[in-house]
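Diaminopimelate decarboxylase: structure tokens wanted.
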Amino acid sequence: MDHFDYRDGALHAEDVPLAEIAAAVGTPCYVYSCATLERHFRVMDEALAGMPHVVCFAVKALSNVAVLRFLARLGAGMDVVSEGELRRALAAGVPGAKIVFAGVGKTGAEMAAALQAGVGQFNVESEPELERLSEVAVSMGAQAPVAVRVNPDVDAKTHAKISTGKAEDKFGVPISRAPEVYARAAALPGIRVVGVDVHIGSQLTALEPFEQAFSRVAALVGALREAGHDIARIDVGGGLGVPYVRSNEAPPLPFDYGAVVRRTVGGLGAEIVVEPGRLIAANAGVLLASVIYRKRGEARDFLILDAAMNDLIRPAMYDAHHDIVAVREPEAGAAILPADIVGPVCESGDAFAKARPMPPLAAGELVAIRSAGAYGAVMSSEYNTRPLVPEVLVSKDRFDVVRRRPTYAEMIERERIPDWLG
Ligand SMILES: Cc1ncc(COP(=O)(O)O)c(C=O)c1O
Ligand SMILES: N[C@@H](CCCC[NH3+])C(=O)O
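Answer:
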């Protein structure tokens, strides 16, 4: 499932001991495995075999350009949600035609940049957006290829903060209104309808919501075609969940997800677009950190790490579980005691885990926070003026820093004291 394993008593990323990376780069840092990225990309690609399809990696999950380049070389397209992500995908060498541009609030400037880049598909989420896109395209003498994102009103049964396909969510147009939105699209001079799009949420751990949503989309495709629209592409979004608790979680397999896609929308003669982010990236990355102090607490000890909520916000934001392991393999029979694993930031919410059974770990020892490749580095901030941490890409016995830590001077020189403050 991933390529972070113990070998000779030490946790490795592929063939590289994590301790070697820590010694060379310092901690905290993110470490990504090419082998895991590739495995997950291929698993999804193979799950859709036999159907014309493109796997567009959701750049929001992990946007480092080296990672994007690696995936692009495997044949991935990209799903972007901002001009910044678009520029990253282009910098990574992804052809515009393999980029889909999503998001509820695209600005005119972002639309122009995407048209300039020749993106293959705009996933449009409202009528005002449709009108704006048409205006921008006409002003550039172009036509924008469009899929309307429909909201199928399906309960994705995931965390409320990452569900996107229920009627009350801000995403997409209600599927019941899709026919009139398509009629409007067809009448706009700057719009060329190419498909339909749906995405119901993230970290889905059951297939039924996908099945329901895709079945509704299949029915809609029939109706849209009858109305004369050219639905050449069906974009089914991302959202397939991954195991965060290695010992006891088994989300649906990509192969079974592929079967759902095949039996719902696979036979409609359209190209299938998928937008997986987490599936490809989550277990391809760890956040490597050091224990700064072991502090005696009333109920249990605190392990205070040099990584914090600003580096990985998922536990604070979603109460998300991440496995945390010692980089030096615990000896058989080592006492396992509950500890609170926290960071140095001034917030009580700055905790990676509460009462987590851990082996004895002293100051200076290394830990790896697993499953941190997706929505890890990309959601980090400089809160407490903590520099964004380096990112390291491993391939077999080789590793490279693919984002360096900024200096404090670089962080501060972006700001300026106006003359009138003296
Ligand atoms: C439109 C869209 N596509 C793709 C994704 C990627 O989702 P995931 O990382 O769960 O595969 C998201 C995030 O939920 C999204 O909003
Ligand atoms: N950022 C979220 C997922 C949001 C998915 C993006 N639409 C997470 O860490 O789980």
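Residues 60, 162, 202-203, 314, 375 surround lysine (ligand 2) (CB under 6 Å). DSSP finds twelve helices and 21 strands in the chain.

Cheers.
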